[in-house]
Amino acid sequence: MKNLLIDSRIRKEENEYLSQYFNIIKIPLSKDVYGEISGHSDIFYCKLQDKIICAPNAPIKEKNFIIGDSKVEETYPKDIPYNACEIGSLIIGSKYTDKKINTNIIVKQGYTKCSICVTSQNSCITSDISTAKKLKENGIDSTYIEENNIKLLKKDGKYSNMKGFIGGACFIFDNKFVLFGDIENLESKEKIIEHLKKYELELVDFKGLEVNDYGGAIIY
Fold first, then answer.
1. Cis peptide before 56 (omega within 30 of 0)
2. Neighbours of 69 (CB within 10 A)
3. Which residues contact 74 (CB under 8 A, 6 or more apart)?
4. What is each CA distance from 39 to 43, 90, 103, in whole angstroms?
5. Is the whole-model pTM more than 0.90?
6. Going residue by residue through the chain (220 aa), what tens digit of pLDDT does each one get?
7. Would you give the end-to-end CA distance of the chain in angstroms?
8. Max Cα distance, the chain (Å)
9. How far apart are CA 142 and CA 50, in angstroms?
10. Which whole-number Å values give the CA distances from 161 to 5, 10, 36, 148, in the listed order?
């Protein structure tokens, strides 16, 4: 059974479902960044193919992880050096991405991985319009959504006034698109469902729950 690195604030329903498929590794909340992102895998870790690059101050480090050069700190842009992602042969990041992550597409959105859900080797859903445009220019089928109903959690587990991103609110495994909450709560549900049908992805969501941004999840 593979490991799943995920925010320790996931809810009981999500934990029970994911535990059927993975050994759940819950990320302790870090004091080095603000509460909303303090347990997010996409803040401290970047997975590229079969390797994971992590911050020197990542809450969990394992011997096979590659330690990056940049410590993650509270103030932007020092909180985003590992917020990059891979779509096929392309590695997308910002000008602030850690040097051990060899980006070949630079976007303006610093929270790059937060705002991108990779759905195949050539497609994604993104909540950042400039990112969508840049990816389309590079041959990626990028579905842009506008979404205001993705929640972020404070350290105490209560909802923040900050808005979450689609990339942090879901992840893909075994042709399943796992959304951390109920898709009925999203304004963009029709565009998301249309994209999932196109790429033959099965929607897994959690009825009655708000959609939470946990910084996605990393399988290893």
1. no
2. 12
3. 32, 33, 34
4. 8, 26, 24
5. yes
6. 999 999 999 999 999 999 999 999 999 999 999 999 999 999 999 999 999 999 999 999 999 999 999 999 999 999 999 999 999 999 999 999 999 999 999 999 999 999 999 999 999 999 999 999 999 999 999 999 999 999 999 999 999 999 999 999 999 999 999 999 999 999 999 999 999 999 999 999 999 999 999 999 999 9
7. 10
8. 42
9. 24
10. 25, 18, 10, 11
Helix (H) / strand (E) containing 89: none
Q: Are 177 and 204 in contact (CB under 8 A)?
A: yes
Contact assessment for residue 48 and residue 101, using Cβ atoms and an 8 Å cutoff: yes
Show the CA angle centred on residue 55, arms to residues 53 and 56, nearest 5°.
Answer: 120
Q: Count CA atoms closer than 13 A to 216's CA, side-chain side.
A: 29
Both tokens of residue 18? 């994911």
**Could you give the 3-state DSSP secondary structure of residue 43?**
helix
Give the pairing of strands 218-219 and 211-212.
unpaired
CA distance linking residue 64 with residue 123, whole number of Å: 29
Q: What is the DSSP letter of 114?
A: T
Are 160 and 209 spatial neighbours (Cβ–Cβ below 8 Å)? Answer: no
List alpha helices for the chain, DSSP H: 12-18, 41-44, 129-137, 189-198
- The DSSP annotation for 147-173 comes to ---EEEE-TTSPEEEEE--TGGGEEEE
CA gap 27, 25 in Å, rounded: 6
